[in-house]
Amino acid sequence: MQANKLRQLRKEKKITLDELAARIGTSKQTIHRYENGIINNIPPEKIERLAAALGTSPSELMGWDQITPMKYKNTVPLSTKKLPLLGSISCGQPIYAEEEHESFASADMNLDADFCLRAVGDSMIGARIYDGDTVFIRSQDSVDNGEIAAVIINDEATLKRVYYYPEEGKLILSPENPRYAPLVFVGGELEQIKIIGKAVAFQSAVI
């Protein structure tokens, strides 16, 4: 994060800390930490809102335009695209997935995904998906056994490994954490289950 750039743009626009905080949905103290470099790992949706509020682009605000990776032999430039961030998905007990249509996450141009969700909880840590990770989803209504899917259960969303046994009329949604028991659905209970997509990638914050 270009802390000096953020402070400079805010002052040029004559926007107070309180005003900027209100525009992006955070606190005055958080903006202060951004400007002083105390917080560097800013969520992508906050970067988008900061840039919009200050009349600039995320790349200009973050200083990404100044990076020239090809000067190093072991690096290559990445072509990226933006995918809509459609709220949160539980990695524990199912939670309602509230859509955030104005939020986006950047992904590699070659990633075959349609949208992404923010992981909440720790039930998928065995698959290296942690609380706060961005999970990229390819829209499809079925997955192979053992694949990780975003699943809707009575309007609530969860991320689990899926195992379906049609001959038994049974569906198992399995976590990747021994602290959690699998969710088992049989017979008519299957009508409340809807697979909305396959998890194809995830993105963790660098700490």
Give structural notes.
The chain is an alpha+beta fold. The protein folds into two domains: 3-70, lambda repressor-like DNA-binding domains (434 Repressor (Amino-terminal Domain), Orthogonal Bundle), CATH 1.10.260; 80-203, Umud Fragment, subunit A (Ribbon). 20% of the residues lie in helices and 31% in strands. The protein has helices at residues 3-12, 17-24, 28-35, 44-53, 58-62, and strands at residues 80-90, 104-108, 115-120, 134-139, 148-153, 156-165, 170-174, 183-186, 193-203. The chain has a nine-stranded mixed β-sheet with strand order 2-1-3-4-9-5-6-7-8. A hairpin with a 2-residue loop joins strand 5 (148-153) and strand 6. Helix 2 (17-24) packs across helix 3 (28-35). It starts with a helix and ends with a strand.
**CATH superfamily membership of the largest domain, which one?**
Umud Fragment, subunit A
Reported by name, the CATH topology of the largest domain is Umud Fragment, subunit A
Query: How would you spell out the order of helices and strands?
Result: HHHHHEEEEEEEEE
Question: N-to-C terminal Cα separation, in Å?
Answer: 14 Å
